[in-house]
Amino acid sequence: MDAWKRDRLYSEIRRRVAERPDGRLRRHWGWGLRFFAGRWADAYLERRPPQPGTAVVTFRCSRHVADPCDFTDEELTGYWSDVRTAAKAIERAGARAS
After folding, report:
1. What angle do CA 57, 46, 14 make, to 5 degrees?
2. Per-residue pLDDT tens over the stretch 69-84
3. Most exposed of 21, 27, 28, 94 (fewest Cβ within 10 Å)?
């Protein structure tokens, strides 16, 4: 992602977060800017190399899942639903920033 596109995307996400009633904007020490918090997953935009602007989606539950085969059916459905919601948020923010 070009630096100017990444900056515009970050600006759009910050603007949308500022409009939230709770004003939630959290940073995770390892991933960057959290832009989505779902029931099953959190999504972050990386701020540093190797790939600034890349989205990382992490499973939220208390146990570690190393492989999708380890999810229960409910977890698998919920996780991928949250991944799709995070992807759509990026898509909408990118469309507004261009």
Report:
1. 95
2. 999 999 999 999 999 9
3. 21
